[in-house]
């Protein structure tokens, strides 16, 4: 806006201020509004992030170790994705030749060493209070199901492995656990109670969920949870409890080893 | 004579600036998750050139041993990332702005000319509208990458329930690799994007905040006299 005539410039300015803003005023006004909004919202977003990042950790209970709002979000998100769960959605299975010969082993909390099968009985706590004591030989007489699938660890690795055992749904039917199947949750613990998982009933009764006693067509080795372990392909490995000692049923969430350490309770795939 | 020329719609600016911090959080929480099984590397003829990521890098950003936390963040902010993306795509389609964005049959040839121009090999850039051909390709590609991240993400998040997505992505293992590679793509895009924004200057940058550019109206809008290169 170079004007050689200062007189004219002044008069122009006077007129303009009455009528409308100059182009520079318009530019400045819009710049101010948009950048003020930009930095205002940006600051608010940063504040929100700081708040969330430093939000209090949930009180220790069935779940623990996560920040309160993030835990709430995890639970809500899982409720949403549970809508997609179906017994018709099956994990992909593979030919036997693709199963790993050396099966990866991450941890054996609660299942260290060997446990002679004759010293072991599976304890099933019925709703009535009755406790079934079931031997491995008895479980072996039930119809056997094998599965070769891609085992998925929450850490991010996956491995095709081969398992054999009795389907949990077959086990429930055989022992007339129909009343128990109507409850919402199954809890499983190792004999020493050092490792424990909680499972929602639909996932436990999924047609590919096994109480496994074989790996690669051999009895389970010590490291892989002998004499009986859980194989639940609709969950991450952390839920695939090794060396089951007891099974319980409830309408409230049973305790879960990794949910107490900040992981999602559901951990479904 | 200065004049205000409207450039970017409020919806475009809003989604752009929402996406920036959200994607940053997704990449950060993704690294917290990736740390737990950091198996990807670039190996050519037996020599490993890049390992994702070196220990000093992990330690610098306090990445180690935060898998559970990373998953909690990732599975919250995935909602914002996805919803913001859906909103942007719907808006771009319904408003007709896609016409300025989607590459046309000339774009690939012209993008090469733009590249030569940007590298100071060629004097003149091809004529353009709001976005040049290279931008059309880049900004459309980044949306397709975003859709790819959501699909591969769902494929590894619920590989049993969304088994068809996992199949579509070439299986669980491969879907995870694509998901990771797309993230590297975002970082690459970000670097180029920021360099171009800096080169294009203040007027251009401001338009993504305030929506307009200041142009000089005396120069007739002829094809070869662009006020700016109009980068970004």
Descriptive overview:
The complex is a heterodimer of chains A (269) and B (232). Chain A has 269 residues and is α+β, with helices and mostly antiparallel strands. Helices cover 30% and strands 19% of the residues of chain A. Chain A is built from 7 helices and 10 strands. In chain A, the strands form 2 sheets. Chain A has a 5-stranded mixed beta sheet. In chain A, strands 3, 4, 7, 8 and 9 form a 5-stranded antiparallel beta sheet that branches. In chain A, 32% of the residues are buried. The model of chain A has no long low-confidence stretch (mean pLDDT 90). By secondary structure, chain B is mostly helical. Helix content of chain B is 62%, strand content 8%. Chain B is built from 9 helices and 4 strands, in the order βαββααααααααβ. Chain B has helices at residues 10-34, 55-60, 67-95, 98-101, 107-118, 133-157, 163-168, 172-200, 202-210; strands at residues 2-6, 41-44, 47-51, 212-216. Chain B has a two-stranded antiparallel ribbon. A two-stranded antiparallel ribbon of chain B has the order 2-3. In chain B, strand 2 and strand 3 form a beta hairpin. Chain B is globular, with a radius of gyration of 20 Å. Classes of the chains: A alpha+beta (269), B mainly alpha (232). Chains A and B meet through helix 2 and helix 3 of A and strand 1, helix 1, helix 3, helix 7 and helix 8 of B.
Write a brief caption for the model.
By secondary structure, chain A is of the alpha+beta class. Chain A contains seven helices and ten strands. In chain A, a hairpin with a 6-residue loop joins strand 5 (185-189) and strand 6.
What's the SSE blueprint?
The complex is a heterodimer of chains A (269) and B (232).
Chain A: H1 6-19, H2 23-53, H3 68-82, E1 122-125, E2 131-134, H4 136-140, E3 145-152, E4 158-167, H5 168-174, H6 178-181, E5 185-189, E6 196-200, H7 201-204, E7 210-215, E8 218-219, E9 229-231, E10 246-250
Parallel strand pairs in A: 1-10
Antiparallel strand pairs in A: 1-2, 3-4, 4-7, 5-6, 5-10, 7-8, 7-9
Chain B: E1 2-6, H1 10-34, E2 41-44, E3 47-51, H2 55-60, H3 67-95, H4 98-101, H5 107-118, H6 133-157, H7 163-168, H8 172-200, H9 202-210, E4 212-216
